[in-house]
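COMPLEX REQUEST
Ligand: zinc ion
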Amino acid sequence: LARTKATIQQTRRSNERLVLRTIYDDGPISRADVARATGLTRTTVSDLVETLLAEGLVVEAGTGPSTGGKAPILLRVPPDARHLVGVDVDRDRLSGAIVDLHGEVKHRESRTLEGRDGAGALEDLDALVAGLTAAAERPLVGIGIGTPGLVDTADGMVRWAVGLDWHDVPLGPRVSDLTGLPTIVVNDSQAAAMAEWTFEQRSGSSDMVVVKVGEGIGAGIIIGGRLYTGEESGAGEIGHTRVVDEGLPCRCGSQGCLETVSSVRAVVDRAQTLAGAGIATASRSARVSYASLLAEYRVGDPLARDVVLASAEPLGRVLGAMLGTLGISDVVLIGPMTAFGDDWLGRVTREARRSALPILAQRSHIHLGRSGDEAVEIGAAAMLMTSELGLALAV
Ligand SMILES: [Zn+2]
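STATUS: Structure written out below.
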């Protein structure tokens, strides 16, 4: 009897999700059309809609055209019916956003980590999440967190996050205990890839690699319209591929990793080293930052251009290897390094094509994405929305 009851509850829950998704995707829509679209009986649909109306997830929105009888009442999911919290854990900064059910950012907060890692960074994350949940003006679905490193999404464990000194941190349970809300933890590059693929790509292709090049470097691999995460989210973890023998030490404990030569940190450090060695121009600031390097690059400073364009080459070679491994020709680059624009992209593309089989290289299309700074927050929120409500964010 207990099993039958559980099965009935499960069926009801899955039907409720199906009805909600149909209203979200196709609303405004009448109960009769929901029944037609889902194959459920009109009685079942009416019953489930009553629950969704009571929960405030669905509202009545006027009447549709009459087909003879009484004009049908239409239903829709208002974007503000629920909000979601998305968090981007970067190596230097924690950024959070409150997002509506259409993926629109309603509120944002951030905190600088200033070198804090381990338990210190966790305390900052707690404070950021507490601030965001307190600022919410609508019921929250939960918290979606994108973090660098290897993540076991099923139990919310961060196995290892390079640069944050997190080893086997139960991040999901910790934040869930703190807030009382469902929490999902995902790899940051994979979250950003989902946001780019969901919101910004109109090519219609169902296979794509989205590479985020910032403080870290990682890829999200989408195959058949679904994110391929690999074991413990390790798929696309390309930042620690060794590209320089006897290279600079990396925060992962190895040396010569891609992140030591092609990341934002790597180009800033390289420019700083060269500037310190007296190879300087009048425009060069005493202390090189991402912003100062970008400004100098844009006015054509030769050193800034050399450093940035040289950094594109190892990245291109690793992408070329990915083209060959996956046979996916559509590659999208996002993240702070894309601000270096077409010349940087051109150098990445040239090297990628040189290191792939000619026929694959010819077919490949490497281009800059359109995701903004909030790709990780929005992507993490989108994945939360799918896991908690069965909805796939779409615009
Ligand atoms: Zn490394």
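REMARKS: The chain has a mean pLDDT of 90. The CA atoms of residues 29 and 74 lie 5 Å apart.
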